[in-house]
Amino acid sequence: MTARHARGPARPVRPPPGKHVMPALAEAPNALEATALDGLDPDRLNQLAECLFTLNNRRFGPIPGAYVVFCVEADRRWCVGQLSADRAKPLVLFEDLSFDTPAAAQRAAERLRRTRGEGRTVRSL
């Protein structure tokens, strides 16, 4: 596990004055995240962040236990990611957890959840 995986939550950046948007964490996206989010509508990302915020029990940041497999190169490369209640980066991709098959990435995501002690995400809706 790298230092990136063990790091605590980052501090949120305040939204622009007069704007009703979800906060964003101060950490800049890595290369994979920047490519994945390039050209997406910021208003749609804000709506997604609001949904993830609700699923995360009204907390900002990565959602414990909510790991996903994300295709970063069509039919060639898959990466483990984590959903996050953050308007600028709703998906945290772990660059060092990249695989040649989706099955290998899925096993790595499940292993990451077990090693972090994160079972199924508990929701209070």
What features would you describe in this structure?
This protein is an alpha+beta fold. The chain has one domain. Helix content is about 30%, strand content about 30%. It contains four helices and five strands; from the N terminus they run αββααβββα. The strands form two sheets. Strands 3-4-5 form a three-stranded antiparallel beta sheet. Strand 4 and strand 5 form a beta hairpin. The longest helix is centred in the middle third of the chain and has 14 residues. The protein is globular and about 45 Å long.
What is the strand and helix layout of this fold?
Elements: H1 3-6, E1 12-13, E2 24-25, H2 31-37, H3 42-55, E3 61-73, E4 77-85, E5 91-99, H4 102-115
Antiparallel strand pairs: 1-2, 3-4, 4-5
Give a concise summary.
The chain is 31% helix and 28% strand. By secondary structure, it is of the alpha+beta class.
User: Kindly, what is the distance between the CA atoms of the first and last residues, rounded to a whole number of angstroms?
Assistant: 32 Å
Kindly provide the radius of gyration, computed on alpha-carbon positions and rounded to a whole number of angstroms. 15 Å
Q: How does the overall form come out from the CA principal axes?
A: globular
Overall structural domain count: 1
Q: Poorly predicted ranges (pLDDT <50, ≥5 residues)?
A: none
Return the average pLDDT rounded to an integer.
82
Structural class: alpha+beta
Q: Number of DSSP helices?
A: 4
Strand order of the largest sheet: 3-4-5
Order of helices and strands: HEEHHEEEH
Number of strands: 5
